[in-house]
Amino acid sequence: MAMKRLRSPKDCCVAAVRKDPEAAFCEECGQPLARCMAFAECGGLVGDDGLCHVCVDPHLQIIPGATMNAPIGGSVALPFDLYNSSTIDRPLFVTGLWSREKGDWREERLGWETLDPGTRAPASVTAQEFDRAGLHEVEIMWTVATRWRARQENFAFSSRVLLNVAGESAGAAGPVVQISSENAMNGNVIQITDNTSRGSKDDGKVVSAIDMNIHRLDVEERRLGLRGITEDLRVPRSVAFRFAGFGKQQTPALELPISTPDGILAFGRSKTRAAGGEGDVHLTVVDQSGATDTDQSLQLSRRHFELYVENDRLMLRASGSNGLRINGSALGPDKIVPLNDGDVIEPLVKAPGALKLAVRFAREFDRVSLVTVTRTPAIQESAA
């Protein structure tokens, strides 16, 4: 049976990044080309939702041979496999499993976490007591993480199953669950029928795996704290960056999303790529006359800190040897923190007033559309 796939990046965008690994936009559709955090390995792009479909391609399948029995007034166990159909050699980590018929989620027991590429692992949820005949909907939610070095992206998915419970006949042993791949109301139907016919050819067992329709649960991701700054505010991968107070060739030239091969903006003493260096934002310290303060500038590492978007948040990692300050608090090497609107970055711990970078968010509805990074003191053109 063909897999039911989630939405993937456009073919033209994939072709554009294969043609030019440094391209910022797709020439055909004009969309920004945001790389997966593991682009060097997977070559994948992510959309505004931050999902790389090369790395994250989960499925839920009702397993062959499953037989589930329950009388009206009882419960139904729904066995299934979670399957990782990613084509690259990096696992998914299943971090939680829940189910519900209506109302609140019930957390289910899951005795494993790692799901290697091309493999499946068993799980099950229990649909609670059915006290009436008719349609019952069971929703299954699971959360997954994909990891690359020190970074991790989290997502939540769900599948909805419709149970049609028929009334019992006198003397019956109870309804037998029969599963079909028939789609109804964009869901997956499991038919529970009264098993009173001794001559029935249907033994209630699944003959072949049924791949279920799955959906992203972006609202639940924010509610669970997996993604977003708050439940009503997020920083998408398509957010643009503006730089103020910098000199020529010290920052990316245009207001663009992050389109570097590793999905990171590197701030530090190294020159920018446009100027022949390996950095993205060039940092120096200037004195009161606007001239470069060489001694203090040497306190900045060539790659002093990094900014990147992860789980719909703007993250900062202190990558230099001397650390830095955020809103006056010291942050040591290799430490990672989320940034918020109004935060002030001071790259020099021992001279915090020598260089400051203020971060501001421009918001459109529930998303940040522009991040502005303003340096103080500003670079004069003669010093640039």
From TrEMBL:
<protein>
    <submittedName>
        <fullName>FHA domain-containing protein</fullName>
    </submittedName>
</protein>
<dbReference type="InterPro" id="IPR000253">
    <property type="entry name" value="FHA_dom"/>
</dbReference>
<feature type="domain" description="FHA">
    <location>
        <begin position="265"/>
        <end position="331"/>
    </location>
</feature>
<dbReference type="InterPro" id="IPR008984">
    <property type="entry name" value="SMAD_FHA_dom_sf"/>
</dbReference>
<dbReference type="Pfam" id="PF00498">
    <property type="entry name" value="FHA"/>
</dbReference>
